[in-house]
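Notes from hallway chat w/ T.B., transcribed later so I don't forget. T.B. wanted the structure written out for a chain they're using in a teaching module, and asked if we could keep both sequence and structure tokens in one place. Agreed to drop them here.
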Amino acid sequence: MKYLLFLLLLSLTAAHAQQRQPNIVFILADDLAQADLGCYGNPYNNTPNLDRLAKSGIRFTQAYASSPVCSPSRSGIMTGKYPARTKLTNFLGGERTDSTSPVNPANWTRFLPAREQTIAERLKPLGYQTGMVGKWHLGGGGPSHGDSLAPWGQGFDYTRVIGKNGLDYYNYSIYEDSYKKEFFDKGTTYLTDKLTDYAVDFLQKRDPTKPFFLYLCYSAPHVFIVPRGDKVGKYLNKYEKFGGKYNPYYGAMLESLDDGVGRVMKQLDDLGLSDNTIIIFTADNGGLGIPELGPIPTTAGNLRKWKGFTYEGGTRVPALLAWKGQVAPNQVSNAYFINTDYAPTFMDLTGLKPDPALDGRSLTPLLRNPQATFERGPIYWHYPHFSNQTSRPSGAMREGNWKLVKSYETNKIELFDLGNDESESRDLSQLQPDRATRMHQTFTTWLKSVDANMPILKK
């Protein structure tokens, strides 16, 4: 009898310990600029739920994606490693070249290698339930690719992954836990709403005795710009009032994304999970600032360029973090960090040992005190490709307030003081040659340290 009582107490203690591990909800938007959200100053787009999330915790003003395009940035989130290190440096399907350039794009790996350990794979041994909903874009795009590259082969238990026609918001397919079960929608449910339905389903079906990690990746607001018809009217009505500066169809599309975030937050509240759940909202890269598959959807505000570029408009992204009872509300942090820092942060918060092979750093000091001095050290970007958004092969690094940008075609160096010139409008490389030289040496050393694949000089 005593032995049975001991086993019962042991199991209850283990269940309690597991439950006190924080739940993590990571929500990723696709091609979203900071300047698109109300909490970052947008007066046109209606984003009340994201604005509420910002007020519930920390709004970061200098958060960065690890790449200016989709797939590499997502690999940085999943692994905590720079895309240059994993060799996934371009978006899947990105094969653009330029006959006028002296270089061809670098060789690269067109999937997240199965040998790389995702944050989901790291959390599972701790008892975490893992869910992935939406756009994966790291390989495993169909049965011919095999299961090892799909999210169910990369540490996720519950998967609802966009399959065919991922850019069509009313004619798409969803793989449910494997390639063997594929759901097809033929205009019934708007894709953003469907992904939210799946996220809510995961939360409702989870084992309440175990912690969970939910990775919710909306395809919105990536082009094509296809909003729900019932959302457009209010934006058309105020279009002239704002001087035609904003895209009403994009605003309507973004509102559906905001609605989805609100539904997830409400579900957490209804299930009594908010007190022990970290919620992160961010984007995979900056917004799209040129016509591509339709009219210009977004603006980068005062930042230079857009998606595809290693300038600020391509890599600086919105980032909101809330953790009720653990992170103080109404906080703004001006510390800079990069999305490779998320995986080490989750490892730190769940008691996993630091992995020296990772490039990221834990953000826990900022969670305790968003105003603290966060000595992040240099962060780097490597995009040795031609993007669909007119960018050309380049790399960049930031150290403190200083940023260096290098063209891989011409070897031209630019130097910017982001503390005084956030828009990167004044190249100071000629005025501060010593600093430019030192940072360039640091950047070159980093490229060698990660064995970066470089553009190939044409013969």
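Follow-up for T.B.: The first strand starts at residue 23 and ends at 29. Might be a good example for the class.
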